[in-house]
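Notes from hallway chat w/ T.B., transcribed later so I don't forget. T.B. wanted the structure written out for a chain they're using in a teaching module, and asked if we could keep both sequence and structure tokens in one place. Agreed to drop them here.
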Amino acid sequence: MIRRNKKYSYNPLKAPKPKEWLAMDEDKRIALIEAYHIKDRIPLESVKAHASLHAIIENQAALGVQMPVKAAIKRLMYQGADRHEAIHAVVNVFIKYFWDVMKTDKYQDGKDMNRDYENEVRNLTLQKYYDEFGE
């Protein structure tokens, strides 16, 4: 259980403790991620949107073997990315599938978006990320 008086911070270069992270309110997670990006003066069009996407991927990583994200982050780091870049690589895959659901009818005929997303995350390499999304 999280004690209310403990000060938490977020650093994408270090994985949060899964139980503590998942026990935290989603708004708190997003606020911590926003604070990191503001403190480091990382220029973003929307800190809230960026932090929300970080939170989605951190949540999936915290689920461990239930999702392929934690393994993908480790694999990308082994291939030379730092953890923050690895999160961005997975975010880009997530956005691609989110966009398909929101703007196309690709998954209206019963196709399994979650399966497709998870398979792409399982097969994500640093080179594939660079090839598709740029360095």
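Follow-up for T.B.: Confidence is low (pLDDT under 50) at residues 1-5. Might be a good example for the class.
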